[in-house]
Specification:
Helix content of chain A: 40-55%
Order of helices and strands of chain B: HHEEHHHEEHHEHEEEEHHEEEHEHEE
CATH class of the largest domain in chain B: Alpha Beta
Number of strands of chain B: 15
CATH superfamily of the largest domain in chain B: Peptidoglycan recognition protein-like
Number of domains of chain A: 2
Oligomer: heterodimer
Distance between the termini of chain B: 71 Å
Distance between the termini of chain A: 84 Å
Strand order of the largest sheet of chain A: 1-7-6
Number of domains of chain B: 3
Largest interface: A-B, 46 and 60 residues
CATH architecture of the largest domain in chain B: 3-Layer(aba) Sandwich
Amino acid sequence: MSNHFFERRGQVAETTTWIFATVAVVIIVLVSVFVSSFLGSKNGINQKAIIADKSSDVFAENSLTSFLLTKGDSGNSIYKELQANGAFSNSNGNLAKSILTSLYGAYYKDGVYVGIVDLSNKVNFESNDYFGRSPVLTRKYQPGNVVALNGVNSYVYLEGTKFVHMILAGSYSR
Amino acid sequence: MQDKKQFGAFVRSKRGDKVLSIYWFLILFIVTGAVIYMASSFYGTPYDVRMLESHELGNQIANCLTSNGYFNDNALDSNFDENILSRCNLNFNVEDNYGWTNKSEYYFEVGIYGYNKGSFNLLGPQLADIRAGNPNLKTTWQLSTTSGESAVSGFFSNVLSAVSNFFTGKRKINTIVIHTTDGSSASGAIETIAKKDINVHYMIDRNGYIYSSAQPPAQFANAFVPEDQAASHAGCGIGSSALTSCSSLPASSGCIDKNPINSNGILDAKCQNLSNPPQSEWCCIPGFNSNSIGIELVNLGPLCTGINGGFCENSVLLDGYKWENFSNSPDQMNSLSTLVADIALRYKIPVDRDHIIGHYQITTYKTDPGPDFPWDSFLKEVKAKELILSAPSQSGTGDKNLPQGEMRSFYTVDRNGNQYVVQVLAIIGKVEKNV
C-alpha cells in the first residue's frame, strides 16, 4: 500500500510542478514580449530617425560663396577685395554679418562667425569687429566611433596661408 | 504477474517520456517565437529617413538654382517650374515603386526674392514662386507643427519675454486688434491708459521693446493685462463705461444715438460695412474685448498736422492728415510681426484681414492704425514668421504619419550683380509600412 501511495503522490507532485513551471514560463514570456514591444514602440521610428549631417550646410556655403562673388564698393568682387586687404572693410563686413546672421543666426544657436584666418598663426580663437569672437566647435562622438563637429567649419582659400573661415556653431535646430 | 506489472510501468514510462519530449519542444517553440518577436519588434522598426530626404531634396534644389556660386537666372523664367524635376535631376523612381506616383509624398516650394537688407529675413519683393508635388503635405506639415513650444527660440526672445500666459485656454481668442497710441512716447501712452482705467495686452515702443503684463513698466503696471484676461481696448465705451447713448458725450461730438445691434440682436445694416460708415453716425461693434488681443503701437497717428520736426518730418500726407510713417520704425514693425505671428500660431488665428484688424474696423470714430499702415507687406511678413516659428525641430522626432520637412534660405547673386534670397521648403510625406 505504502509504495503505491507514495508513487501516486510523487506523480501528482511532479505533474503540479510541471504545470506551475509551464505557467511561470508563459507568464515570463508574455511579460517580456509586452515590455519589448512597449520599448520597441517607444524607441521605434521616432528615435530611429536619421538626421542629416550637421557638419556641412549647403545653403550656408552657397551664401558664403555668393557673398564672396558679390561686387564690393571697389567694383571688384568681395573675394578680390579680401585678397587685396586681408580683412573686412566696413561695407563688406556689415554685408557678411547681415547675410549670415539673418539667415542662420536663428538656427546655429552657439554662434555664427565669418573672418579671415592665417593658418600659419596658431590662435585659440579668431575675432573681428563684425562677428566678435569666434564660437568654439565641439567634437561629439556618435555611434560607430564617428567623431562629428557640432556645427559647420568651412574654409575658402584666399591666398598664401590665408582663408575665409566660416563657423556655424551648435546643432542646426529651432 | 510481476513481469506484466514491470512491462506496464515500462510502457507508461516510455509514454511519459514522449509526452515530456513534446512538451519540451512546445516550450522551446514558444520561447524561440517570443524571442524572435521581441527582437523584431525592438529592432525591426523602419528607419525614418524623411528628414534626411527632405534635407537632400532642399540641397538638390539649391544646387540646381546656382552654378559656380552664381544664381541661375533661368529660374526667373515663367516656365521654369515646368519639368522642374528633370531640370534639377530629381527623380522619385525608387519611391514610385512604393506608390508615390499616385500619392505624391513629396512637396517643395521655392520662393525667389530680391535682397532687402532692411527686412528681418532679408526678403525683398518676391520674383518667382516655384512649386511641385503634393501641396496638401504643406498644410499637414504646418498644422502638425503648430505648437507654442515651437516658438521657444532665442531668435524671438524679445517677444517671448513679453508674452505671458501660454496655453491658458481661459478664453477663446480669434482676433488681434492693432492700435496706435497717437502719441510720441510709450510712457505717456501707458500713463494715459492707466489713468483712464483701461488696459491693453501689449504695447510696442518705437525701438521694438514690448511692454506687457510680463514685462510691465515700472509705473502703471495696471495698464497691461495678461492674454488670459480680456482687456478694455476695443470696447464701445468711453473709458470703462459702456456707451449706450450719446447723452454722455458733448454735443460737439456730433454723436447721434445709434445702437449698432438692433432689437433682434442683429448688427444694423449701416454698421455692417465699417469701411464705408455712415457719415453722421458712429458705429461700434461690441464684443471684441472678450475674444481679442490688443496691441498698441507707439505712433503719432494723425497728429502731425502743425507739428514741425521730430518724427513728423518724415510723415506721409494721406486723407488730409500727415501720418507718422511706419517705415521709420522698422524695429517696431519687426517686433509687431513677430508678436502677431506668435499669437496667431498659438491660438490658431488665421493671418488675414478678417482676423488681424485695425481698431478702425470696429469703431467708426477710430482711425488707428491709420492709412499708412502697410497691411499687405505686414501680413506677408507675419506669414513668413509663422512658418519659421512653426517649423519643426530637425531632430526628426515627428509622428511617422505626419510629413517631415524644413525650410531654409540662402543668399545668392547673378553675374550682373543682382542680389537674391532664395527660400526653399522641402517636405517628405508619411512613411509607408514595410518601406
